[in-house]
Amino acid sequence: MEEVTQFGFVPGRGTEEAICKALTHVDEARARAKQSQRHAGRGHRGLKMRGSLTLSVDMSKAFDMVDRRRLREPLELAAADPFLIDLVGKLHVEALYEMTASDQAFSVATKRGIKHGCKLAPSLFAFVTFLLFRKLGEHCDIEALKQILTMYADDTLLQVHFDDQPQLQEALRLCDLLLDQLTELGLKVNPEKSALLLQLHGGSAQQTRNRNKLVVTKKGEKYVQLPSGRLIALKTQVPYLGIIISYHNYEMQSLRHRLQASKAVMKEVAHAVRNSHAITERRRGFKTAKAQIVQRLKQFLKRQKKGDKEPKRASRLVHLTPEHPSLEPATRGAVALPFLAGSYREDPAINGAYANSICEECEERGEAPERQAVQYSRAAVC
Description:
InterPro entries: DNA/RNA_pol_sf, RT_dom. It comes from Symbiodinium microadriaticum. This is Reverse transcriptase domain-containing protein. The chain has helices at about 15-40, 70-75, 80-95, 120-135, 140-150, 165-185, 205-210, 250-275, 280-305, 310-320, 335-340, 350-355, 370-380; strands at about 50-55, 60, 95-100, 105-110, 150, 155-160, 190, 195-200, 215-220, 220-225, 230-235, 235-240, 245. By secondary structure, it is of the alpha+beta class. It has a domain at about 15-65 and about 120-265. The strands form four sheets. The chain has a seven-stranded mixed beta sheet, with helices on both faces. A hairpin with a 2-residue loop joins strand 9 and strand 10. The protein is extended, with a radius of gyration of 40 Å. Mean pLDDT is about 75; it is low at about 310-320, about 325-360 and about 365-380.
C-alpha cells in the first residue's frame, strides 16, 4: 500500500495527511499565479496560458457498490497470504443468503457490497483503491499519479498543474480516465454532484475558455466539458474532510465553514435541551413511573384521612398498624397498648393477628406480654 495515496484505513495515515497534501497543491497554484502576475506587471509579452485544476469526485454508497468478484484481484497483486485470499473469497464471493418464506426455502447470491461491521471491510476497501491505482498506472506514470491523486476512503481529489493548452487537455483526459476506472470497478460516480475547480492565468486564458468550449453554460450553471463529453460542475470551492478547498483564500472560507458547522451543532444541542419532546425514552419512562407513584401516594393519604369517618376500618387499624410518626393520630401507637395491658390473651382476634405477624425467626411466642409486644413491633422489619 506504499504506492497508493489512500489515507483512510491505512496505518500511519489519517485526515491530517490527506488535508496537507490537498492544500500543498493549492499553495503551489497560488505561487504560480503570483509569478504570472509579476511577469505580466513587468510588461512581458507572449505569456503562455498556465493554471491548475482540482476534480472532486462524489461516489454514492461506495462500500455497497464494490464488486465482490474483484476482491481477489488486488489481494493477489499485493502478494497476500493465499489462506487469507481464500478466506475472503469464501466470506464474500461465495456467500449466500438463506431465506425462508412460509414452507419454502431458497438461497440468494450477492454480487456487490462489503459487509458493514466486518473488521475486514476497511482493509478490503483500501485494497480496492490499490487496484484502482494499478489500473490507472497502465495509462500513466504511477509516480506522477501519486503526486496528483489523493484519497481518503471514497473522498477523492485529482489535482493537476498545467503550463499550456496540450497539458490542460491531458489533465482533462486524466479526469475522464479516473471516472472511467471507478465505473469499471463497479463504483457509482455522480457527475452531477462532482465538482471541478479551474484556475487559468496568462495571456490566452480567456480565449481558452471560449474558443475550445471548455466552459459551457446550461440552465444558468457553468460546467467544464471533458473530452468524453461529460459535464462537471464548475465551482469556486468544494468541501473536503471538514475544510474548504479553493484557489481563493481557502483559510477564511474554511474558518467560516467550521463556524457554520459548529453553530448547526449548537442549535441541535439547544433544541434537545429546551424541547421536552426531545428527551430520551428512558427519561420519559422515568417521568411516567414517578407520576404514577406520586398519584398512588396521594390516593393512599386520601384514604387515610377518611379513617375518622369509617369507625370499623379505624378499629381494625388500631390492632394491625405499627407505630410510625408519619401515620394519622387515629392509628398512631394503637397496637402496643393492648399488648402491654395483656388484652391479647383475652381477645382471640387480636391474638390471631399478633401470631400471624411474627416471622419464622421470632418463634418465641410463649414469653411474657411485654417481650411479645416488643417482638410484634419488629415483625414488619423481620
